[in-house]
Amino acid sequence: MALLKLHNVGRRFGHIVALKSVDFQLYAGEVLALLGDNGAGKSTLIKIVTGVCPPNEGEIFFEGHPVHLNSPREARDLGIETVYQDLALVPGMSISRNFYLGREIVRKSGPFSLLDRATMDTQATTALSEIGIHIRNPDEPVGSLSGGERQSIAIGRAVHFGSRVLILDEPTSALSIGETRKVLSYIKAAKEKGLGVIFITHNIHHVFEVADRATILSHGKKIGDFKIADLTQEDVATMVMGEGVPKHLKDL
User: Fold this and answer.
1) Alpha carbon distance 228, 209 (integer Å)
2) What is the rounded (10 degree) CA torsion for 53, 62, 19, 12?
3) Contact call for residues 213 and 197 (beta carbons, < 8 A)
4) Mind listing the pLDDT tens digit for each residue in 161-191?
5) What is the C-alpha separation between 252 and 245, in angstroms, rounded?
6) Among 22, 80, 108, 118, which lies 20 to 30 A Cα-Cα from 177?
7) Residue 5 zone, left/alpha/beta (φ > 0; ψ -120 to 50; rest)
8) Per-residue pLDDT tens over the stretch 186-228
């Protein structure tokens, strides 16, 4: 059974058709690369999955049950977490404060509720270390970290709170080679924890390093689903550029 399934989903913005009759499946414990050129419909599909904009048509199923995602909170309540390119981190706050942003742990002191910083520091350090992210000091401001380190904190937070689905939007853009390798290792760690990972990227090399399948969109339509083992990088580039499915893949 697919962890997340979209059936015949469509979305229009006025007279503009952003998605048309798209079927989509994500399974637990897999990395699915969502690929397509700019304007292909990737962002719209992710907005539907995360409850930002409900579809105009079609159905969404989560663990086999129909769901209506009308807000990001409803998606998060199901265990769907997203790491966007801008990371949604607060540079002036500590690592642990960013890790629990919007989910702060508090303790009672008489009539007051106070942040339990010690518990957040300990639990954030432990949760990050479980997927191979080792931090120097949980009180360190996020603004002092490198781009790769910030990305790792955002991914670690999403893995910890996103119990089912992790969506990564261009997580390796603007990173060094070393930082990119670390981020790819975190993606593999999320897969090993049993999460379904949607990996959006323009870097075809990275797709072949971590992904199990690829779903390719073009002009709001799905070109197809393919196992990475059946593809070459040239196949992917051809389809992403809108040149159709190569002949040798049509019979798969």
Assistant:
1) 10
2) -30
3) no
4) 867 999 999 888 877 888 888 889 889 988 9
5) 11
6) 80
7) beta
8) 899 889 989 999 999 999 999 999 999 999 999 999 999 999 9
